[in-house]
Design a protein that fits this description.
This protein is mainly α. Helix content is 78%, strand content 0%. α1 packs antiparallel against α2. The radius of gyration is 14 Å and the shape is elongated.
Length: 65
């Protein structure tokens, strides 16, 4: 993608999902461990939450175009 060109939908959905997934992992893993959840419950929950919020962010971006 050119830095001066418009963002493509693929770029937006990839970056939104990646950013929110990392954020959920950074916040969710310590919180999950503090609650006594095992990693195999916390990590998939964070991945799913990141994908869902990334899709919501993409829909918001697309509707503003």
């Amino acid at each position: 993608m050119s830095s001066t060109g418009p963002a493509t939908p693929r770029y937006v959905i990839t970056m939104a999902t990646l950013i929110f997934t990392i954020a959920f992992l950074v916040i969710g893993l310590p919180a999950g461990y503090a609650l006594g959840w095992p990693w195999y419950a916390t990590v998939p929950a964070c991945l799913v939450a990141g994908a869902i919020v990334g899709a919501i962010a993409y829909k918001g971006w697309k509707s503003s175009q």
